Amino acid sequence: TRLRKGVPDHLRGPAWEWLARVPHKMKQHPGLYHKLVQQSIAQHEQATDLLLYQEAHDGTLPPADTFPKIKGVPYLGEHAKSFKNIQDTIERDIHRTYPRHH
């Protein structure tokens, strides 16, 4: 009857890791997780810059030609950091509002 309500919240993450054999897979492929995390961060940053670039064309940011370009895409620097701060605030609020839904 203890599992009738499901796995307790504080054990769900570790339980899924164990069921998915995460520690074993990380030992088999050292460094892969870190590499994938870095790729994900880079893709997220590029997507954020692209989103802000599109917003600039809607008139909500200065014209794109005022930003330096990296690989042909305007790099939005401080504007991207500002957007990131807003995004972080929203994500923190979502976790506070819906604490059981990670």
UniProtKB/TrEMBL annotation:
<protein>
    <recommendedName>
        <fullName>Rab-GAP TBC domain-containing protein</fullName>
    </recommendedName>
</protein>
<feature type="domain" description="Rab-GAP TBC">
    <location>
        <begin position="6"/>
        <end position="102"/>
    </location>
</feature>
<dbReference type="InterPro" id="IPR000195">
    <property type="entry name" value="Rab-GAP-TBC_dom"/>
</dbReference>
<dbReference type="InterPro" id="IPR035969">
    <property type="entry name" value="Rab-GAP_TBC_sf"/>
</dbReference>
